[in-house]
């Protein structure tokens, strides 16, 4: 399988034009589900990233203990309380009753505390049955979930440790071997894998894209949460998972490069949010 280095000319074809006469909701509706007592910031970063990449509506679902802080951080967020502090089956049932019917995509797992893996399985299955495109990250990347997402056009966004937890094998430091292992498990499971690293690798087992970042400052916590929001945002407009993931990782890397250019090796994840719009301007088109 031949891998292709992501370039602007390729990514441009992955980001749909915006209709001049479009209405609210036409450019994507996203659900972000994450957060816990310790990690309240992760779903906020994801939600703001999804908005910055051009999504019309983002619903941010966080545990009730985080609702006030989440609402206070930005008036742009539509916050849905998760009735329990952790993900439980009861909380999932209540959430499924209040989420929008016209949901295009969802990203799950950033900072999320999961009390019951059956709750996660219930949520994933229910959203897939509604034809919602899913991106899974962090605590949602557990092997129990793998049988449910095979052949379902799902994106998973692990770093190396999460990759091992999900697939049972740790990627090596060799770029060639990392590409091979991503392609192997993507093909075996018929899903899109975005393995994060100095060079991000995106593959659905048929096509593989490489995003060479050269931005060592992006090791700071939270940049992956920004990426998760961007993947969901792109999925809400382009339902082809490998194209949406490739576009998201490219824009995320460009935003990181611009942030590093301004701040050096001292960036924080919110700096990426500042530069997403600049990174996306070359791809803005209206028809």
Distance between the first and last residues' Cα: 35 Å
CATH-defined architecture: 3-Layer(aba) Sandwich
Morphology call: globular
What pattern of helices and strands is seen along the backbone?
EHEHEHEHEHEHEHHEEEHHH
Compute the number of helices: 11
User: Can you tell me the CATH superfamily?
Assistant: Ribokinase
Total count of strands: 10
Q: How many discrete structural domains?
A: 1
Radius of gyration: 17 Å
Quick synopsis:
The chain is α/β, with parallel strands linked by helices.
Description of the molecule:
- This protein has helices spanning 8-12, 42-52, 67-73, 89-96, 117-129, 146-149, 160-167, 175-189, 223-235, 241-263, 269-280, and strands at residues 3-5, 29-33, 57-63, 78-82, 105-108, 133-136, 155-156, 192-195, 199-203, 208-212.
- By secondary structure, it is an alpha/beta fold.
- Helix 2 runs parallel beside helix 11 (269-280), helix 9 runs antiparallel to helix 10 and helix 10 (241-263) crosses helix 11 (269-280).
- The longest helix is centred in the last third of the chain and has 23 residues, at 241-263.
- The mean pLDDT is 96.
